[in-house]
Amino acid sequence: MDSILPEGLVAEALPTHVAFIMDGNGRWAKKRVMNRVTGHEKGARSVRQVLETATQLGIPYLTLYAFSTENWQRPKKEVDALMGLLTRFLKNEKANLVKNGVRLHAIGELDRLPKDVKKTLLATMEETREGDRITLTLALSYGSRSEMVEAIRAISEKVASGEVSPSAIDEALVSQSLQTRGIPDPDLVVRTSGEMRLSNFLLWQSAYSEIFFTDTLWPDFSEEEFYSILREFQGRERRFGKVLEP
Ligand code: IPE
Ligand code: IPE
Ligand code: MG
């Protein structure tokens, strides 16, 4: 496995969980005087690329922010195109996911997805559940605040029923009440397209993530750039608030 590692990367220091805010599809298309949807279609190539790279490197968790709770406010035509694209992507990739040991997972307000999209998503999750090389989590109709509200509601119900006492509410319980339960917090969050914000993505989970912003638009994001971000990640000192011994 080590032999395939690109120069400068150390297997032991690779992140366990990388999360991407895939941004810039619209601008990629606009620059070429194309329809925004063409940008989203091109973005699918980067998804395949990043997934393949992470799988080959042995990174066990990859999360991709594909559609936010706020993205529902985009024009219906664009939302419909994105949903269609997602369904096609899942159907086309299913065999590859299984072959490559990818387990598909999804977080977000999945009930808001069109019926056929949700059905395809759940079926793909079911068919890939034996995947043991990498867990690919799609954040779809996802918003961190909505996820936290849902967790607060679930904890409140346990308190109301007497199952949990308020003094027993701790960080572990909150983490377990989020949709990302069972998935380690991301070590690395990458946002493409030059925007420097989190846009409601994994706000609780990214408390100590290393964050990288690149100007590259998502459809242009390459394997080489992924490697270079991983190299920089390995050079960063993660202190978690402590003072490290000299
Ligand atoms: C990211 O690209 C994909 C989604 C948010 C669905 P955008 O569609 O946000 O592209 P820009 O930011 O307008 O360039
Ligand atoms: C964030 O991108 C959501 C996804 C990448 C899915 P947006 O393009 O929706 O975010 P803003 O509007 O620039 O904050
Ligand atoms: Mg955007």
What would your notes on this structure say?
The chain has 246 residues and is of the alpha/beta class. 42% of the residues lie in helices and 15% in strands. It has helices at residues 25-31, 36-57, 76-99, 115-127, 144-160, 171-177, 223-235, and strands spanning 17-21, 61-68, 102-107, 134-142, 188-191, 210-213. Strands 3-4-2-1-5-6 form a 6-stranded parallel beta sheet, with helices on both faces. The structure holds 3-methylbut-3-enyl trihydrogen diphosphate (IPE) (2 copies) and magnesium ion (MG). One 3-methylbut-3-enyl trihydrogen diphosphate (IPE) is lined by residues 21-23, 65-68, 71, 195, 197, 199.
Structural class: alpha/beta
- Topology order in helix (H) and strand (E) letters: EHHEHEHEHHEEH
CATH topology: Undecaprenyl pyrophosphate synthetase
How many distinct helices? 7
Helix content class? 40-55%
Radius of gyration: 19 Å
Hetero compounds: 3-methylbut-3-enyl trihydrogen diphosphate, magnesium ion
Number of strand elements: 6
**Low-confidence segments, ≥5 residues, pLDDT <50?**
none
Features:
single chain, 246 residues, 6-stranded parallel beta sheet, 7 helices, 6 strands, binds 3-methylbut-3-enyl trihydrogen diphosphate
Which helices and strands appear, and what pairs or packs with what?
Elements: E1 17-21, H1 25-31, H2 36-57, E2 61-68, H3 76-99, E3 102-107, H4 115-127, E4 134-142, H5 144-160, H6 171-177, E5 188-191, E6 210-213, H7 223-235
Parallel strand pairs: 1-2, 1-5, 2-4, 3-4, 5-6
Helix pairs in contact: 1-2, 2-3, 3-4
One 3-methylbut-3-enyl trihydrogen diphosphate binds next to helix 1.
